[in-house]
TrEMBL record:
Residue ranges constituting the DUS-like FMN-binding domain according to the UniProt record: 15-313
The enzyme's E.C. designation: 1.3.1.-
Residues where FMN binds: Q72, K141, H171, G228, R229
Cofactor: FMN
Family from the record: Belongs to the dus family.
Top-level enzyme category: oxidoreductase
Alphabetic keyword roster: Flavoprotein, FMN, NADP, Nucleotide-binding, Oxidoreductase, RNA-binding, tRNA processing, tRNA-binding
Example GO molecular function: tRNA dihydrouridine synthase activity
Biological classification of the source: Bacteria, Pseudomonadati, Bacteroidota, Flavobacteriia, Flavobacteriales
Catalysed reactions, semicolon-separated: a 5,6-dihydrouridine in tRNA + NAD(+) = a uridine in tRNA + NADH + H(+); a 5,6-dihydrouridine in tRNA + NADP(+) = a uridine in tRNA + NADPH + H(+)
Active-site residues annotated for this sequence: C102 (proton donor)
CDD domains the UniProt entry points to: DUS_like_FMN (cd02801)
Matches recorded under Pfam families: Dus
Protein name: tRNA-dihydrouridine synthase
């Protein structure tokens, strides 16, 4: 049984990665429905929380049906991280996660996210400031190191555990790689095999099929897998992986009706949570993934990403169902 603090996650949990502009409550709800064992929020700026920024505060929304759910924060200032931890605790997530892995320039240049990989002492001070400010279990998501010449995940893992971190998710790339090349899980396996490490180690990076999930589980010995980009527009990945683990067989792929239902629910929940206009606008980035690989779909995709009327969008979904009902596999 894998546990974060007192939170039981099952024998081999599948976690939804925190993704900016993706891992909001509507998307998390879909992933939970389709088998995700643990959910994480989008990352939230500690500075934004302290300033009472509306966008940052909105990201604190969590719902009981999501549990167990973690809220992820980032920042480069100890006091701000400590104060934001206290704010996060008021909404009662199951876990507070710290982002030391985001490679985006605007985050890194502020000395946050993966930028902290260049200063492990600062990383530990930031982590301790958070742990000392909350009773929540604190976890961390990070990368292998800044670049190939400075891979320091072994030291990072030991020192994070020593100050009280309860679980570590490792993306198998350096900051310099961004999302290019292949994720190297051999470093993740080495951390897991370290006899000093007792906290759960979750692997992240490039898991996009049930076969790869099984191969990496067996080959690298991690305690669970965190899935990110492969779940965008395809929340079925979680149950597909679980079914493959149990049976060695594939679930039938989602039908057009399944895809329409998921996209429509995502739209409905987005408008309920964000308001109609913003919900419609921010759903547009998801449609390509929901209907990926379907032939002759361009006309409908264009309607989905240009229409700003909710009822008319429902009509587009109905038309997709009618005109593509014989397309079983995309």
């Amino acid at each position: 049984m894998v546990k974060i603090g007192n939170i039981e996650l099952g024998e081999f949990p599948l976690l939804l990665a925190p993704m900016e502009d993706v891992s909001d409550p509507p998307f998390r709800r879909l992933c939970k429905m389709h088998g995700a064992d643990m959910l994480y929020s989008e990352f939230i700026s500690s500075e934004g929380l302290i300033r009472d920024a509306i966008k940052s505060k909105m990201k604190l929304d969590i719902f009981d049906y999501e549990r167990p759910v973690g809220i992820q924060i980032f920042g480069g200032d100890e006091e701000a991280m400590a104060m934001s931890a206290k704010i996060v605790e008021t909404v009662k997530p199951d876990v507070l996660d710290i982002n030391f892995g985001c490679p985006v320039k605007k985050v890194v240049t502020k000395g946050a996210g993966a930028g902290v990989l260049k200063d492990v002492d600062l990383m530990i001070r930031l982590t301790k400031a958070v742990i000392d400010s909350t009773s929540l279990p604190v976890t961390v998501k990070t990368r292998l190191g800044w670049d190939d010449s400075s891979i320091n995940i072994d030291e990072v893992a030991e020192r994070l555990q020593d100050v009280g971190v309860k679980a570590l998710s490792i993306h198998g790339r350096t900051r310099a790689q961004l999302y290019k090349g292949e994720a190297d899980w051999t470093h993740i396996a080495r951390v897991k095999e370290n006899p000093r490490i007792t906290m759960p180690i979750f692997g992240n990076g490039d898991i996009d099929t049930p076969e790869k999930a099984l191969e990496y589980r067996n080959k690298y010995g991690v305690d669970g897998i965190m899935i990110g980009r492969a779940a965008i527009g395809y929340p079925w990945i979680f149950n597909e992986v679980k079914h493959f683990f149990k049976t060695g067989e594939h679930l039938d792929p989602p039908t057009i009706a399944d895809r329409v239902e998921a996209a429509k629910n995502h739209l409905i929940w987005s408008t309920e949570w964000k308001g109609e206009r913003l919900g419609i606008m921010e759903m547009r980035r998801h449609y390509t993934n929901y209907f990926k690989g379907i032939p002759h779909f361009k006309e409908y995709r264009q309607k989905l990403v240009t229409n700003d009327n909710l009822e008319e969008l429902y009509g587009v979904f109905d038309a997709i169902l009618e005109n593509f009902k014989n397309v079983i596999k995309a």
